[in-house]
């Protein structure tokens, strides 16, 4: 039995939910939020998004989604074009090649793995930017961004898991 046009449209819209959530978070992360005495650093929202969906629902966020988010992030953050795309695709590749490790693991293990992957991602991104532009990213900005990433992942994962449950329940 062939799906109706509405069923096909519904399925397509559901598949866009993870990308749309990531896009909204990326746009929020770009908004300058500085306060006296604080560094201007943002969490790695795209890394957290791509990581979550690669671990929990790899079918919902493919390489094209990660690549597109990375290009947009580079445009909005004024970093060399393609750097974020490369990093996000490497994050997806690492998670997907180790997918059996992640299946059925408790949240703390998933969070610990994010800590390792995010550290590699932020250091690789800083090194590539330094090599391409000749400007070294301040270590304090790198580590504050990394710390914010680890701090914000649990609530972000909670929101994403609720969205995932709604997507599954409605199908």
* Domain count: 1
Sum up the overall morphology in one term.
globular
Helix content: over 70%
Our estimate of the beta-strand percent is under 5%
The tally of strands reads 0
What is the assembly state of the chains in this entry?
A: single chain
Number of helices, counting only DSSP H or I runs of 4 residues or more: 7
Structural class call reads: mainly alpha
Question: Gyration radius, to the nearest Å?
Answer: 17 Å
Unreliable segments (pLDDT under 50, ≥5 consecutive)? none
Distance between the termini: 17 Å
Mean pLDDT comes to: 88
> What does the main sheet amount to?
none
Order of helices and strands: HHHHHHH
Salient structural properties:
mainly alpha, cell membrane, 77% helix, transmembrane, 7 helices, 171 residues, transmembrane helix
Give a structural overview.
This protein is mainly alpha-helical and 171 residues long. The protein has one domain (5-29, 40-170). The protein contains seven helices and no strands. The protein has helices spanning 5-30, 45-56, 63-77, 83-97, 99-102, 107-133, 139-170. Helix 1 runs antiparallel to helix 2, helix 2 (45-56) packs parallel to helix 4 (83-97) and helix 6 packs across helix 7. The longest helix has 32 residues, at 139-170. The radius of gyration is 17 Å and the shape is globular. Its main location: membrane. Pfam families: MreD. The chain crosses the membrane at residues 12-31, 38-55, 75-96, 108-132, 138-160. Keywords: Cell membrane, Cell shape, Membrane, Transmembrane, Transmembrane helix. It comes from Rhodospira trueperi.
């Amino acid at each position: 039995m062939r799906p109706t046009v509405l069923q096909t449209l519904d399925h397509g819209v559901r598949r866009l939910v993870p990308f749309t959530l990531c896009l909204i978070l990326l746009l929020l992360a770009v908004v300058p939020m500085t306060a006296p005495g604080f560094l201007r650093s943002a969490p790695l929202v795209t890394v957290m998004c791509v990581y979550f969906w690669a671990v929990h629902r790899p079918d919902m966020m493919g390489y094209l989604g990660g690549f597109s988010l990375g290009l947009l992030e580079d445009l909005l953050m004024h970093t060399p074009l393609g750097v974020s795309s490369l990093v996000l695709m490497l994050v997806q590749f690492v998670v997907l090649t180790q997918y059996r490790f992640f299946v059925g693991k408790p949240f703390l293990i998933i969070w610990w793995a994010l800590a390792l992957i995010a550290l590699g991602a932020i250091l690789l991104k800083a090194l590539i930017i330094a090599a391409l532009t000749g400007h070294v990213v301040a270590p304090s900005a790198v580590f504050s961004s990394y710390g914010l990433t680890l701090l914000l992942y649990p609530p972000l994962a909670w929101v994403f898991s609720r969205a995932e449950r709604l997507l599954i329940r409605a199908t």
